[in-house]
Design a protein that fits this description.
The chain contains six helices and no strands. By secondary structure, it is mostly helical. The radius of gyration is 14 Å and the shape is globular. It starts with 16 loop residues before the first helix and ends in a 13-residue tail after the last helix.
Length: 126
């Protein structure tokens, strides 16, 4: 019998331009469903950053890029079998997009179809 040691993930205090570009390049030219298995280790800390960081980065991003990030973090959480709950970066990103464009029903359906996280994409009710 072997015992694995659990190492907590410490989310970064910021996301630099290189990390952001690397995230956005993950699904270039691919459909909305793609395999992130080889990238999960470096994505996981970014999937848990504070909402304030996304609010600071939002002015640099297009609506399409925000949607890309929502898709990447949704798939990464599912493929990595993470339980991020209400700490998922999908929630603040979705709120930014919702505030700017309103609710994208197709995106909501897509997120719901690709996650077991009951908090996605809207966050906690209270």
């Amino acid at each position: 019998m072997s015992v694995d040691s659990w190492q907590p993930i410490t989310p970064p205090n910021q996301i630099n331009d290189e990390q952001l570009a690397r995230l956005l390049n993950l699904n270039q030219g691919q459909a909305q469903e793609y395999d992130l298995t080889s990238d999960l280790d470096w994505i996981q800390p970014l999937a848990q950053v504070d909402a304030k960081i996304w609010q600071q980065l939002a002015p640099k991003l297009t609506f399409d890029q925000i949607q890309q990030l929502i898709e990447i973090f949704t798939l990464a959480e599912q493929q990595g079998s993470w339980s991020l709950g209400e700490k998922s970066s999908v929630i603040p990103l979705f709120k930014i997009l919702k505030k700017a464009k309103g609710v994208d029903r197709e995106l909501v359906k897509w997120v719901k179809a690709h996650t077991d996280n009951k908090f996605l994409p809207f966050g906690p009710l209270l």
